Amino acid sequence: MKTFKFQSFVLVLIAFILGFSEFLIVGILDDLGTQFNVPVATVGYLVTIFAMVYAVSTPLITIMIGKYNLFWDLMVMMAIFTFGNILSFVATNFVFLAISRVVTAMVAGVSISLGLTFAGYIAPMSKRGWLLSWVFSGFSIASVVGVPLGTWISTQFGWRISFLTVIVISIMTMGLVFFSLPRDFKQKESTISGQLALLKDHKIQVGMLLPMFNLAAIYVFYTYLRPIITNQLHFSVQMLTILLGVFGISNIIGNRVSGLISEGPGLRAMPFVYISQLILMALMPLVFHYSWLGAVLLFLVIFTMPLINSPIQLFFLSIAEKKYPQSIVLASSLNSIFSNFGIALGSATGGIIVSHLSLNGVGPGGAVYALVSLGLVLWLNHMTQKGLSSDQNSL
């Protein structure tokens, strides 16, 4: 039991450092813009670039490495991830920084997919939802501790030291992975076409779009969270760090609730989540006139962001285990792949809105994607219920 708990901690730490590196840009947008003399909206596209590379490279690399030992796959991916952050640390111009983020993004998605695969491998069935929700919470903890810490370090010592912090924690994490996780883990061998068979499943096809539009809705405004807090809600730089921490706590609570949802109603609960999300985002232009009311609204919307994680992850894994055992790693990666397509879509949409309208438009923009999410989850629940009815009739 102690071994399982320590392995669980290591998997959460992997998610934490991946989240710290990915989300750090949100907290240091202004500092990077000043350093490289580029508009904040342009720096915001680093989020889009990272997410797009993450989403495109993850399935390709996942399929290529799926036949090898997954322990060594994870070690190699984490080493490249660390190297990418070293490149960010020494970046001399904005283009160099963008290239370094591409290197990091190429392996970040594969790393978390392997981490989630290990979670499914080491956890007893009764602990799966619990461990998956904690691994996803690693990203939330990065928001609570990593992003505010990185923002504070950036304002006090410079943004390069923020990346240096990521590098040090990455090296420590690799050491813990080396000494804790099982080294004999491989999935069922298959051809590339055999692994891709998973993507022909209609429920998988609809399910993949759900995390995409879920995060597209959030990242329309979340990419510009720092300017919203300081310019729109008129909080001080000191309050910025505190509020980022509070919003991170909201995200952690959401992840823990996500685990409970996965053990209970699952995806059947999500329509109520997206209706709430839609209403809250539509109210943003009105509520942003009041500092503390706006902060409460942001807290509530950010709470809804991770609620889909555990239910959709278990949904993908259950289908793969029953029908496509050769595609477990690919199934584990779907949530993170399409979440990052969503981050790219949302951050790009937010950039267009901020450039051509103002920060007031990001809420209604996100509400449109929340409406799409609502339609998708209703469709997926209908397909699942129809499948259950067919299975019962065939007995």
From TrEMBL:
Entries under InterPro entries matching the protein: MFS, MFS_dom, MFS_Efflux_Transporters, MFS_trans_sf
Subcellular location per the Swiss-Prot or TrEMBL entry: Cell membrane
Keywords, ordered alphabetically: Cell membrane, Membrane, Transmembrane, Transmembrane helix, Transport
Residue ranges crossing the lipid bilayer per the database entry: 9-29, 41-63, 70-96, 102-123, 130-153, 159-181, 206-225, 237-257, 269-288, 294-316, 328-355, 361-380
Cellular component, GO annotation: plasma membrane
GO function terms (MF aspect): transmembrane transporter activity
SUPFAM superfamilies associated with the record: MFS general substrate transporter (SSF103473)
Principal subcellular localisation of the protein: membrane
PROSITE patterns: MFS
Sequence ranges assigned to domain Major facilitator superfamily (MFS) profile in this UniProt record: 7-385
Protein's membrane topology: Multi-pass membrane protein
Domain of life: Bacteria
Name used for this protein in its record: MFS transporter
